[in-house]
UniProtKB/TrEMBL annotation, chains A, B:
Residues 16-84 form the HTH gntR-type domain. The lineage of its organism: Bacteria, Pseudomonadati, Pseudomonadota, Alphaproteobacteria, Rhodobacterales. It comes from Sulfitobacter sediminis. Keywords: Aminotransferase, DNA-binding, Pyridoxal phosphate, Transcription, Transcription regulation, Transferase. This is PLP-dependent aminotransferase family protein. PROSITE patterns: HTH_GNTR (PS50949).
């Protein structure tokens, strides 16, 4: 490719003659790696016109650079970056502290330092990836996704692709969610009660901003999804972690001054507990009694391959007290970044205004692609295929874990894609995870899920959403081996 | 399509016999519009298995519904929603105030009520759309965008499509911006000094959250991009609007207790003023003197078809004092929702952590598609084509405005895609815009750009990025006509 002439310009503060400035500019481009070996330079005529200098000035500069072996001339075809030109350094981290700015003072609010789960970006290279929440290329319906994306790229959808929706969403996606997704959870909602978000993360964040302030109190399940704890701690509200039991969040333990209760009733994260119907009613009653709102994160409800899922907590709510969070990250893929909020209009109105201010709207193309994928029935087929595969893997997991005597602490009544595991008390699962990485096994240590500083260190999550069945036994054997070394 | 069996289930609180519950469930589905005329119901066998009831119960329910003309039986092929079934109501806004929740109390922070520009969503149906910032289907290189998207949907890019990048971005896009986009603005940056955002809106929002608090002061240009004013007012920092002149923001008018200065030096929004070199230096000196940071919104620099753009303010900054905001909304399309932040690491680190908490990362697929579109040279070709078309339109605008005696208040030295217009003092341009809409002309009234409550009401913006050349004269004539009626 020819280097675009627009990337060339003379620095207004540059010293020396025009010819020298041009030479320096090109040499700097090569040395910094912007112009790479074999790339073609603009013609002398073009560069001269662009810079507003005479053509002969450019020609002399090029000839000089050729003499220095920065450039080679290939006759009429023009000038190229020489193969012998000095190699650029690879990008190195700029040394900090060279700024004149005192960043410690300049930064008004710190956001870094959260306690998120860390997953190696190259997890797919590990032989036994018991990791959670990534798309499995062997299960995802890539071919139909491509077709839907292609359809959404068509002339007819030009508007959906390119338009600035301001605070609105793709009406086709909203309509499909209202008519066909929410009814699966027993929820009836109008389009103006639904807001598309950049994944469940974004939905939880928006909800927190709208409902909580420094003077309000949130109840969090303990253990819970660690990113939610970061969101709440950034909002500076008061947080009460409430320890979950075999049935999920116990309503009686929720303090009376609570404003917002965050819960995962269908599928407690990470213990996989399913809240029984009586407790759901009790939870709604408790919320009513103390005038709290409930945020229901209904992640992974699609993975109910053992038994139909119970309806969402939101379906039992006649008060408008429950705000529902849905996501396509598990059923489609996390890089899609699509989720949704369902709630009463006064709430959705504020969440919508905040979303508009923060990011306007999720990109139109991915909304339309998803609407096609859903409405053509590919989504349902995908869920069935994933369910079948997960069921097989789960069986293999259960057998291998039992044979090795490993203890499952929570397994999910309806299905799901992971087990919550308890190791003997003396095992620190962070160390265990590190040692297992060296043997190409990835597990998720459990401490980040717990609140406070005295977290139990012997829990871990074993997911089976990304590991093929036929590697499960071997992988579990390795885990048992490493655990035996310590114990 | 057959209605997926998953969308059927019995409400746990339902009354009556199982058969009645099934009938009600289906009737409700039809009445609510979830099941539409002609759609096929699951077979009695399937539905029975799904609900855990006997098949005969389902069969009787179906037969009853057939008798009521909700369903029709087509023999062995099964049951369908009858064409004579009652029609669902179209979605109507749920009446507010039926909730048991006191939303006035429950909402901790209000975000609605900002003063944003409103554009009709169906702007493309207007014959003379002098509106700003939407993609022009006659100019955008839709064919190559499709090809790039298709490539990014390929098997090789499965990871870029689906992966959860956590707080990271597509390395290919970052690399291209570092090597080929920023150098056009005279900026050198390492990958760890760049963060991809959901458009410039998101970049400005993240920056505000990191740098400003209730105790800090921001300087805003007056007039300015209205969404920026909303972002700052939501952050509750102190805001000083500084009136711009023909050369943009005057440095001497910036109060000494300012922490952050927001500015659009290349192309003041909305007046189109370009800040001269001496003033840029003076602005940097002023910032240094009072230890303020500068946020440079370099929107629309690509639209410099009259003259090469001057380098960005950031290129003159050796202190690390300038934070640079770029966007692909104008050069590609706004529905893409892609922009970027460039700044020192300590700042980018906090913006990255906040972005991760708010939304994780912009979807991988659109990042990769953009990386291909840029690296294959389509972007440069597009910019050239847009420049040529905008230049032609601008000529037509200038001629038509001059012939009608309309006054251009700011026109942009390097190009751009709009004029900032001043009407005679007695004209209220909001009224003017409303009357012009009735004649299929869209203009943007100017008052939303101004700070405070005593905004001048006689300014408006006339953009030529979405109107074909051959409609410009007619459209401008109509504007002049309507202005004459009032004046």
């Amino acid at each position: 490719m020819t280097l675009p002439v627009e990337t060339f310009f003379l620095h207004p503060e540059a010293q020396g003659t025009l010819q020298q400035q041009i030479q320096q500019m090109i040499a700097r481009g090569i040395l910094s790696g912007r112009f790479q070996k074999g790339e073609k330079l603009p013609s002398t005529r073009k560069l001269a016109a662009h810079l507003g200098v005479s053509r002969i000035t450019v020609t002399i500069a090029y000839t000089e650079l050729q003499a220095n072996d920065y450039l080679v001339s290939k006759g009429r075809s023009g000038y190229y970056v020489s193969e012998n030109a000095p190699s650029p350094p690879t990008f190195t981290a700029t040394p900090e502290g060279t700024d004149a700015v005192d960043w410690h003072r300049a930064i008004g609010q710190k956001f870094s330092g959260g306690r998120s789960l860390s997953k190696p970006q190259d997890w797919a290279r590990f032989r036994y990836p018991f990791i959670y929440g990534q798309a499995d290329p062997t299960l995802f319906d890539h071919a139909n996704w491509r077709l839907c994306a292609l359809q959404a790229l068509g002339q007819r959808d030009f508007n959906a692709l390119t338009t600035d929706y301001f605070d609105q969403d793709d009406p086709q996606l909203i309509e499909f969610i209202a008519r066909h997704i929410l009814p699966r959870r027993g929820i009836t909602a109008n389009p103006d009660q639904i807001l598309i978000t950049l994944g469940a993360q974004n939905a939880l964040w928006l909800t927190t901003q709208v409902l909580l302030t420094q003077r309000r109190r949130a109840v969090l399940e303990d253990p819970c999804y660690p990113a939610l704890r970061d969101i709440l701690s950034q909002s500076r509200c008061h947080v009460t972690p409430v320890r979950v039991d075999q049935d999920g969040l116990p309503p009686y333990a929720i303090p009376p001054d609570t404003d917002v209760i965050f819960t995962t009733p269908s599928h407690q994260c990470p213990t996989n507990a399913t809240m029984p119907m009586e407790r759901r009613r009790a939870l709604l009653e408790r919320a009513q009694e103390i005038e709290a709102l409930i945020v229901e994160d209904d992640y992974e409800f699609e993975m109910s391959f053992l038994k139909s899922p119970s309806p969402a907590l939101k379906s039992l709510d006649s008060d408008g007290r429950v705000i529902y969070v849905g996501s396509f990250s598990k059923s489609l893929f996390p890089g899609l970044r699509l989720g949704y909020l369902v709630g009463s209009q006064p709430f959705i109105r504020e969440a919508r205004a905040l979303r508009a201010s923060v990011l306007r709207h999720p990109p139109g193309h991915i909304q339309r692609t998803t609407a096609y994928f859903l409405s053509l029935g590919h989504y349902d087929a995908l869920i069935r295929r994933m369910g079948a595969a997960l069921q097989e893997r789960r069986k293999a997991m259960e057998a291998a874990l039992a044979d090795n005597g490993l203890q499952i602490s929570g397994r999910g009544y309806f299905g799901g894609s992971s087990f919550w595991m308890r190791a003997p008390r003396e095992i620190n699962t962070s160390d265990l995870a590190r040692r297992l990485q060296a043997r190409s096994v990835l597990i998720e240590p459990g401490h980040a899920f717990f609140a406070g500083s005295h977290q139990p260190s012997n829990y871990f999550r074993l997911a089976y959403s990304s590991i093929p069945s036929n590697r499960i036994r071997e992988g579990v054997n390795l885990i048992a081996e490493e655990m035996a070394v310590v114990a």
